[in-house]
Write a structure and sequence with these properties.
Layout: H1 9-28, H2 42-49, E1 57-61, H3 64-72, H4 84-90, E2 100-104, H5 109-120
Parallel strand pairs: 1-2
Helix pairs in contact: 1-2
């Protein structure tokens, strides 16, 4: 990604499997936690669910212009703004049957955090 080349499924899979392994280790130890990653496709989220079927996802959604503006202000980040379109093309929003909540990414961080915590603690 640093070179401006989008990742394909084969490139993403080892990374997703490593995250799933970490989740499984944390669950076994009785820990909970939060992971930030772009599990853009249902298939990617399914890989993560192999570690914890009850895994919950928070989808921070906003418009393309907001994403582009935020990316332009990131310095020394591995993903250049030139890859935004490929990320949005890859995105498969969470579907019925997935435990996910959609939040407006332009909301204040305190509101996003509170909504995420409430969602995480709802059975």
């Amino acid at each position: 990604m640093r070179q401006g080349v989008p990742l394909d499924d084969a490139m993403r899979e080892p990374w997703l499997r490593a995250i799933a392994d970490w989740i499984a280790t944390q669950v076994k130890a009785g820990h909970s936690g939060v992971i930030a990653c772009s599990a853009l496709r249902r298939r990617y989220r399914d890989i993560l669910r192999t570690a914890q079927p009850e895994l919950r996802f928070v989808w921070l959604h906003t418009d393309r212009d907001t994403f582009e503006r935020r990316l332009a202000h990131r310095h020394q980040h591995f993903m250049p703004a030139s890859l935004l379109d490929s990320q949005l093309e890859t995105l498969e929003p969470p579907e019925v049957g997935e435990t996910a909540i959609r939040l407006d990414a332009t909301e204040d961080i305190a509101i996003l955090t509170a909504a995420s915590v409430l969602f995480a603690n709802t059975k």
